[in-house]
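Response to reviewer comment R2.3. The reviewers asked that we include at least one raw input/output pair. We reproduce the pair for Glycerate kinase here without editing.
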Amino acid sequence: MRVLIAPDKFAGTLTAVEAAEAVATGWRRHAPDVEVDLVPMADGGPGFVDVLHTSLGGEVVEATVSGPHGRSTPGRVLVVADVAYVESAQACGLHLSGRREPGRATTSGVGELLRVALGAGVRRIVLGAGGSGTTDGGAGLLAALGATADVPLDAGPDGLAGVTHVDLAPAREALGAVELVLASDVDNPLTGLFGAAKVYGPQKGFAEEELPRVDAVLEAFAAACDRRTSLEKGAGAAGGLGFTALLLGAVRRPGLDVVAEAVRLAERMASADLVVTGEGAFDFSSRSGKVPYGVAQVAAEALRPCVTLAGQVLVGARETRALGMDAAYSMVELVGEERSFADPAGALADLAERVARSWTVGE
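Raw output as returned:
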């Protein structure tokens, strides 16, 4: 029997790579002869580079860049042949900002990572956008690539107040003929009721009463750059980082699709008998571009059964099937919430061992 293991990260506890290894460990306890294929997954957010490096190999270029509040933070660019993969969360992730002073949080470090990628002489750069702690419309990225304006571009949305003119030419020249791909599952526009500030601002630390002001600043920034681009799907990704990428000529693709194609998910699934995916919490939001739902769709096309292992399962059996899963299993139900957080790898391995009893065939 062949089992393909393709989980997302378990946010706050396990990376996708760690989760895949834990599932494999538990499964082998029950069925040591089962052949497992580990394909940790991501959607463009945190873990994007590590997941691709695990499956693709390539060269990792280490760098030190600016975090959302200017403090130096380590970054890694993956170079595979003539393609570079950049994970924006490494430079502007919510885990770095801690929801502190969101009005000053900048994406400058993401632009610095792009410069590292450009220095590798690649033909294409794939920018994974997700999990950000910033809402600066990607202005900091532009500044790092040489763009200028009549206000500071690298001081967060607060610094953009009063903007009327932005010179994008230096940033476009810095990219030259390099193709830019925006990998993101978020399809929000930059501004408005469904924009970056109104929808995602609160989770980044903005109080409800601050949102109209931040949205107005982004509106002015869009008017100074290209208002039409700000209305495109994905412009609101990563606090507006998507807007900047689109301004620079990026082609937007769903992050999960980018990863699935790069790791040859469909091809590897064709030789599997069972697909196992997972994430921290499996609920109806899992349908909104999340990894387990996407993996289940590929499994359905390959006519392979798919089950999910999660920290918590917050839907019933009927809803689970509606999300494309044959079954869903919860760590919390098996070992309790305390152990699930105290020893997530061990708890997930125990859950996988238990699930293997029901799904391993040919013993």
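The chain has two domains: 2-41+263-359, 48-256. The two ends are 9 Å apart (CA to CA). Further pairs are available on request from the corresponding author.
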